[in-house]
Design brief:
The chain is of the alpha/beta class and 224 residues long. It contains 5 helices and 7 strands.
Length: 224
């Protein structure tokens, strides 16, 4: 009995220690200086540590120029996000699976950034042939999307899929190269800084991952 109690105490201690270390690790990343919040430039999401004035930033991967239409029939381009941090994801309005939960989580982020003029949200429809402006407008109304904070966009399917797979790498972090014609479906959220560099990828269904996303947004706001 004594031996069992000792084993139990040790197990509880190690479990508690691991939890504390995990929390400290997450906290350390969220409050790290600029050279500790990584950059990413390809689908493996291998972190690249650079200072904000590093010459290598000039050739680092950036989100390509794009031109799409939002729920208010406004033209949305990469220039819409000049000098803005933004979070992006991919969805479709008739999705019965992960999209409603992702959208609800994006609503939570919208609430948290409502007072930040330099932070925005961008959600791309992966069924643009069905998600017309009217469909996006109805979806925006259903979820309480704020037009000045969050753009739901439709447009050319190939352009949207190119952005997802070749610019944001939202699926290829799984280690699979996919053809642009294959259906794009992912729960990932991507964080882009004011210079169009990718700074993080997060599971849009996981609350802990989304808390880390918000920590990283706060870090970028302090640094940029």
């Amino acid at each position: 009995m004594k031996r069992f109690n000792l084993v139990l105490i040790i197990s509880l201690y190690l479990s508690g220690t691991a939890t504390i270390l995990s929390c400290k690790s997450e906290s350390a990343r969220s409050t790290a200086p600029n050279d500790k919040l990584p950059y990413y430039q390809e689908a493996t999401f291998t972190p690249i540590r650079l200072s904000s004035d590093a010459a290598a930033l000039d050739t680092l991967h950036k989100v390509s120029p794009f031109r799409l239409i939002n729920q208010d029939s406004q033209v949305i381009t990469d220039q819409t996000f000049d000098n803005k941090i933004y979070v992006t994801n991919f969805f479709f309005t008739t999705c019965p699976g992960i999209c409603p939960e992702m959208t609800n989580n994006m609503v939570d982020i919208q609430d948290l950034i409502s007072g930040y003029d330099d932070v925005a949200l961008l959600s791309h429809s992966v069924t643009p042939e069905r998600d017309t402006v009217a469909a996006l407008r109805a979806y925006a109304k259903e979820y309480g999307v704020l037009s000045d904070k969050w753009h739901l966009v439709t447009g050319d399917r190939q352009e949207i899929y190119q952005l997802g797979r070749k610019d944001y790498f939202v699926e290829e972090d799984l280690g699979m190269e996919r053809d642009l014609d294959e259906f794009l479906h992912t729960e990932n959220f991507v964080l882009v800084d004011k210079n169009k560099h990718i700074r993080g990828i997060y599971n849009g269904l996981n609350k802990s991952s989304l808390r880390l996303l918000m920590d990283d947004i706060h870090t970028l706001r302090k640094l940029q």
